[in-house]
UniProtKB/TrEMBL annotation:
This is CUB_2 domain-containing protein. It comes from the Eukaryota. Signal peptide: none annotated. It comes from Caenorhabditis tropicalis. InterPro entries: CUB-like_dom. PANTHER family: CUB-LIKE DOMAIN-CONTAINING PROTEIN, INFECTION RESPONSE PROTEIN-RELATED. One of its GO terms (biological process) is innate immune response. Residues 13-134 form the CUB-like domain.
Length: 348
């Protein structure tokens, strides 16, 4: 009876978060989770917030730990009112009915949540768990100027790209074969050297939305993905010398479904761009859509130089060259100029 009354209270009574900001301190026993609101627990209905609320909660993350946070949200306007801020000052929207975890690094993260004065319930709560860094093997991958990027499939290791003492490294993301699973990219941490205690640079989710290569401040950059090796069997990121990756305003990789046509984007919104695919087999370019007059496309197999170029395409002559077979493992689709092109590709 007491439990039933508690459930009825949580589900029927709207709470006030208290205007302004405050801190949710970790418990003394870090094996115990923390909840917001304090009197809510998993298994209970997600509580409603009062209308017209505007609040922020800052949560410290102890050294040697990361915060695994699950949000429970359902607002009348799905994209409105809530986002999470990382310690690198990047933010990510918290959307309706997405209970896949976020991972946050020391020293802290913050949550902003707001409700409008409108009809409909604003349900919001979250759970925080503090988890120690795993004891994992570090795998070092050496990159050299002029070499193609090294593409990596998610694994259970702490992957470190390194180059010469006077060089830097860029890390670029690959898209998911199924874009609806993009929440998985939150399960990653990128560091500005070769340990969990190095400066936090971001996540693969941050990279895939920006499409801009992430440049290290040192000659090493590291990444760890949490359990993605059990879910994904194709490359999710690539590292290379920054002088090579820095030639393009956008540099990213594309993954394709196992069957059917693949829609590969060549994004020259901000100028020259590079799209990479990593697949040990032949790709066939069937068509280009929206080929602007301001763009020229070069296609390379395995590396970017004149001996590896298999096609050079402009807006007036590309149809005469289709279809185009592209072999090798890594394929490079270079857009020189500006504009956005959608490319129809299949794989043999």
């Amino acid at each position: 009876m007491i439990l039933l009354l508690s459930l009825l209270f949580v589900s029927s009574t709207a709470y006030q978060c208290g205007t302004g900001s405050s801190t949710i301190k970790p418990p003394e026993d870090l094996s115990q989770p923390k909840y917001f609101p304090d009197d809510w627990r998993e298994g209970q209905p997600v509580p409603s917030m009062d209308a017209g609320e505007s609040c922020m909660r800052t949560v410290p993350v102890p050294k040697g730990y990361y915060a695994n946070v699950t949000f429970y949200k359902n607002f009348p306007k799905p994209q409105y009112g809530t986002y999470a801020g990382y310690s690198n000052n990047k933010v990510t929207a918290i959307v309706n009915d997405d209970s896949h975890p976020f991972i946050f690094m020391s020293p802290e993260f913050y949550v902003v949540f707001q409700t409008q004065n409108e009809t409909g319930e604003h349900r919001f709560a979250f759970k925080i768990e503090w988890i120690q860094f795993p004891d994992v093997y570090s795998e070092y991958l050496d990159v050299f100027p002029g070499d193609p990027p090294i593409a990596v499939v998610p694994n259970d290791r702490f992957t470190v790209f390194r180059t010469g003492a006077l060089s830097k490294i860029t890390l670029s993301p690959f898209s998911l074969a199924d874009p609806s699973m993009s929440y998985l990219l939150r399960q990653s941490l990128i560091f500005d050297s070769d340990t969990f205690y190095s400066g936090f640079l971001g996540t693969l989710e941050h990279l895939i939305y920006s499409k801009v290569p992430l440049r290290s401040t040192r000659n090493r950059i590291a990444i760890f993905t949490f359990g993605l090796n059990k879910l994904i069997d194709y490359p999710l990121y690539m590292g290379q010398d920054s002088k090579d990756g820095g030639k393009y305003n956008i540099y990213w990789g594309a993954n394709c479904p196992s069957q059917g046509l693949c829609d590969v984007s060549l994004d020259g919104t901000f100028g020259n761009s590079m799209t990479v695919t990593s697949y040990n087999g032949t790709e066939v370019i069937h068509d280009f859509r929206n080929f602007p007059e301001t763009a020229h496309v070069n296609v390379y197999e395995n590396r970017i130089d004149s001996t590896a170029k298999v096609a050079s395409l402009g807006p007036y002559d590309y149809r005469n060259q289709l279809p185009i077979e592209v072999k090798g493992v890594e394929k490079f689709y270079e857009l020189i100029g500006s504009g956005v092109i959608q490319m129809d590709v299949s794989r043999n």
